[in-house]
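INPUT
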Amino acid sequence: MLKIGVLVSGGGTNLQAIIDAIDSGKITNAEIVTVVGSRPGIYALKRAENHNIPSIVISRKSYDSAEEHDMAVCRHMQSCGAELIVMAGYLSIVGSGLIRAFENRIINIHPSLIPSFCGPGFYGIKVHEAALERGVKLTGATVHIVNEVCDGGPILLQKAVEVKSGDTPEILQRRVMEEAEWEILPRAIDMIANNKL
Ligand code: GRF
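OUTPUT
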């Protein structure tokens, strides 16, 4: 049974997709052992509570440096026996300490077709604003391994999504989440849990 630790920072719709996929059997041989929020009061923590999944807030503000924050997250994940860390809409920096301790065992969902619209500064709604600004006809989402290059790790899965005329960044973000993120993140977890990757 693969033990998963999920990192969240916002509404938690990607966390919910994982929870639902485990409940429905789309993900087998895996369980979420902890949800770590980057700040209190985010709805993702409510989603964990609703499903009796242990959660904790480990906020950057509580630490003197990014390194100390990073090691606190690492120690927590190790104490929970997490074997895979999933960044699900997580906006804090994942540092080299955590990356080295969980080498090739951290995955992230990015809301574009990497290498487009990724790297420093490209997160959340900003990604979709850039895609609309460039005028691409296709965008999508990517699940990749997290390494020390921002959004630069090996790509595991991608799914394309059509950009439609009249799309606003919000409309496009929602379509990318519904049609791509919430599908490929659970699929990647299931493939890892069952040694299909
Ligand atoms: C969304 O922009 C998603 O594309 C990105 O993180 C943001 C929030 O996701 N991965 P969630 O609803 O908190 O999972």
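end of record. The beta strands are 2-8, 30-37, 55-57, 84-87, 106-110, 138-145, 155-162.
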